[in-house]
Amino acid sequence: MNPCAVCETPTKNNCSNCNQVSYCSVQHQKQHWKAHKPNCHPFKIAHNELLGRHLVATRNIKPYEIILKEAPLVRGPAQISAPVCMGCLNSIEANDHIDCDKCGWPLCGPECQALDEHKAECQLTQDRGQKVNVHEFNGPHPLYTCVSTVRCLLINETSPENAEKFKQLESLEHTRRGSNQWKADLASIGQFIPKFFRTEKFSEEEIMRTVGALQINGHEVPTSDPPHVAVFYTASFTENSCLPNLAKSFNKNGDCVLWAPQAIKKNAHLSICYSDAVWGTADRQRHLMQTKLFKCICDRCKDITELGTNYSAIKCEDRNCSGILLPSKADDWNASWRCLECQKQVQKKYVDGILERAGQDIQNMEKNEENILKYLKHYEKWLPSYHYHMNEVKILLVQLLAKNQAELMVISDEKLTLKLQYARDLILLYEKIAPCEVRMLGTLCFELHSAIAEQTRRISLQTSLSPKEMLEESLLYVEKCVNYLQYESDIFIEGHILKQAKINRDALRMVIRIS
Ligand SMILES: [Zn+2]
Ligand SMILES: [Zn+2]
Ligand SMILES: [Zn+2]
Ligand SMILES: [Zn+2]
Ligand SMILES: [Zn+2]
Ligand SMILES: [Zn+2]
Q: Is 376 domain-assigned?
């Protein structure tokens, strides 16, 4: 029994959404809702030595449930950015923008000058006594390096409430201090801000702590072109896993939406992937160490075979051996590698040589069917079929084999079969090792659904049978697609796929009902 949040009468009834507050009656729950609503999530913020603050589910969470929808504390241009509008953060061109009449920073129009987002650097630049003058629009502009830091430093003036929250975020300043990145940041931001803005408002230490907090907690948000950086409060406490149980989407406004692509059990830790779950283990670990300053020990990183997929492995050097090579020490991807079958060891240099060449060849390749098939044939000798490089080109191939409905109706049976096979394989693989990659999974499900529908059409032309089972499979994948993409905004390509998927789904349901 817990005390009612309103009258303290002992009760067994909890808020069913968060399971964390108790009420003696529906009336008291209603009365308390306005105060409780901002904190009513199906998780709590817990704390331990190892993880610091982290999120724990307070009840069973159903597939596709939204866990958290949160506006950013602050947002701004990426640290390396070409000139963008200081309001909407979209790119601007030399002959198609205005300069803010108060501070000189470029804007795409008067409506963006009025946005609150721009107030921080606008005022600071006015106090400087001299307008900013940006006239180079191609490529990264050094002046933009400090903008997001300035916005964080002045967050107290734009929102004291957000400033309080920003202060609580981890900056890892003590770990960063002295590193090459830190030294570069010190010159381009820490020493630059006081000099350029002619201000003594911020100490060097305060600036560098802010730079750290921004780097450790910043998310890349794709709602602007180019993507911008935003810091979220509660989402920052979500721990990292390369096999996470939450997916991250962004709505039109750039708010962060965390949701569960699969069911989550009560008391489970909630996690997102700070890196890219499509990368191999060595690349993810390097990226996490460089940007977030920690070594990942998640379940996927601890298992060198990545759940038996051998996603980062290469084939044994010995052509008579069918084994695969992986690091000889499970937690060190830089040590020598060893064949799991014949035990033969090779130097890391040999592995790097193959992987670098395989990566370079993808980069330099003109992406068409023929080249991709050639690539797959060639690298079959060195890479297992589930290797990340092989999958990277297979994903491209699935989309290139019939780019639209008209092309799909005329491709050869052979190519249709290939599209079906690769789409199926890729969905199986990524649902296993990267269930959070919902945009990719949703897109693949759409491709598979339409390929199955086309195959069904071809079969029913040849026989009088109506292959209901195939139609049902096509429906299954288009429903999966809708589930995976349901939170995607229509400013993204995935939002458009979602729209088409809903139309196809309804049509298929109708066909199946009458057949
Ligand atoms: Zn009560
Ligand atoms: Zn609640
Ligand atoms: Zn704008
Ligand atoms: Zn301005
Ligand atoms: Zn990991
Ligand atoms: Zn071997």
A: no
Q: How many CA atoms lie within 13 A of 405 on its CB side?
A: 7
Please indicate, yes or no, whether residues 83 and 222 belong to a single structural domain of this protein.
yes
Q: Among the three residues 349, 374, 392, which one is the final residue of a domain in this structure?
A: 349
**Would you state the structure tokens that stand for residue 397, as one six-digit string?**
């191939």
Residues 293 and 173: their CA atoms lie apart, in Å, by 11
Ligand 2 centroid to 53 CA: how many Å? 20
- Same-domain status, 79 and 36: no
Model pLDDT, residue 342: 96
Ligand closest in space to the Cα of 341: 6
CA distance 442 to 488: 10
Is 156 in the same domain as 219? yes
Does pLDDT of 52 surpass 90? no
Which alpha helices (H) appear in 218-298, and where do they start and end? Answer: 281-292
* Residues 24 and 90 reside in one and the same domain: no
Residue 510 is predicted with a pLDDT of 95
Q: Partners of 248 in the beta sheet? A: 258
- Looking at the structure of the chain, the number of domains it has is 4
Distance CA 203, CA 217 (A): 21
Residues with CB under 5 A from ligand 1 (ion): 4, 6-7, 24, 28
In this structure, are 81 and 214 located in the same domain?
Answer: yes
Q: In the 8-state DSSP scheme, what is residue 187?
A: I
Mean of pLDDT over the chain: 95
Q: Is the same domain home to 405 and 481?
A: yes
User: What is the pLDDT at residue 466?
Assistant: 67
What separation in Å is there between the alpha carbon of 124 and the centre of ligand 4?
9
The 3-state DSSP class for residue 251 equals: coil
Which DSSP string corresponds to 321-388?
Answer: ---EEEESSTT-TTS-EEETTT--EE-HHHHHHHHHHHHHHHHHS--SHHHHHHHHHHHTTTS-TT-H
Range of the domain at 301: 281-349
Residue 371 has pLDDT above 80, yes or no: yes
Note every long-range contact of 471-474, with CB atoms under 8 Å and residues 24 or more positions apart, other chains counting.
Answer: 471/508, 471/511, 471/512, 471/515, 472/512, 474/449, 474/450, 474/508
How many angstroms separate the alpha carbon of residue 68 from the centre of ligand 1? 27
Instruction: Report the helix count and the strand count for the chain, using DSSP H and E.
Output: 20, 18
Ligand 6 center from residue 304 Cα (angstroms): 16
The residues, any chain, with a CB within 8 Å of residue 459's CB and separated by 6 or more, are 465, 467, 470
* Mean pLDDT of all residues in 87-112: 93
Question: What is the CA angle 384-388-392, rounded to 5?
Answer: 115
Are 86 and 129 within one domain? yes
- Considering the domain architecture, whether residues 82 and 27 belong to the same structural domain is answered as no
For residue 463, the model assigns a pLDDT of 76
d(Cα 298, Cα 458) in Å, to the nearest integer?
A: 46
CA of 274 to the centre of ligand 3 (A): 28
